[in-house]
Amino acid sequence: MQTIQANNYNVFFKENGYHYLSEILLVENYSKIFIIADENTSSHCLPRFLSLLATDVEIEIIELEAGEENKNIETCLQVWHSLTELGGDRKSIILNLGGGVITDIGGFIACTFKRGIDFINIPTTLLSMVDASIGGKNGVDLGNLKNQIGIIREPKAVIIDTQYLETLEGNQMRSGFAEMLKHGLIYDRTYWNKLKDTTALNTEDLDDLIYESVLIKNKIVSEDISENGIRKALNYGHTLGHAIESYYLESSEKTSLLHGEAIAIGMILEAFISKEKGLISNEEYQEIKYVISDIYDFVEFNETDIKNCIDLLIYDKKNEFGTIQFALLEGIGSIKINQQSDNELIYKAFNDYKS
Fold first, then answer.
1. pTM over cut 0.85
2. pLDDT (tens digit, 9 = 90+) per residue, 71-83?
3. Which CATH superfamily is domain 170-354 in?
């Protein structure tokens, strides 16, 4: 696979990534290498990664507890202290080996330690390969509110090795697949068509589909790194999806949803809003609803759940001047940003989802 050129860094694939890594560690003369991983990637991915890491630079492993609930400032404080105690300096580099939580929080830690040190993302989940590790967004949650604290700063590189996906359970693969479906819906009808019949897909297809998904996200981000315009297209499904994810994360009576599981619901809801606003046809909406519902488990919402999710929208980081912003579909493969919806229409979307 050819290397993808992003704004100020490259996305490497498989052996090309490890060749680059060995070279950059030598050329940049880093004082120390810190690898941030969680307990899962330490067990399942770190042995392979270390076997392919050719360097004489001293390596320190910092292991975090797994899970979205640990993507917070408290965890950052622990890592900042560890970096200090282990002799981290301005010439150290952080290698983030893990899923979206690790690349998000690891990037944020690197951007803020000593006013910023280099970092490289090595995503190990489908979600982080096609979304979280690409585009320079780094951050943490504020309580149950997603990604409220953060910075946009691009990594030194991203290295995608799909062999790590062999360690993932099916629900984690589906979580990442939601972002791939989103890329088709907002940007490329042909790509959506390739993805929507999952029975026709095999493991040989996956590498090519991941590559295409990264290309789509990179094209969008490269046009608008600071998210003032077209990059908002990537928020499709996320306005309501993040509210649902946050609500299920904070509720002691609910089982937490994976990011992609919540975003899948958000995409159905926001497709309904798109239909009601005349931006997509009913046929397109029914197609989207059928495809996504066939892949992801149905989630039951009662009236209290819906109200609580809607209440959380006010905290969405995309809001401007107190107005909730949606990226809505304008036909499959196209998007319309900076759209609004009243609560009545959002309730209708939830009720249609339940039908």
1. yes
2. 999 999 999 999 9
3. Dehydroquinate synthase-like - alpha domain (1.20.1090.10)
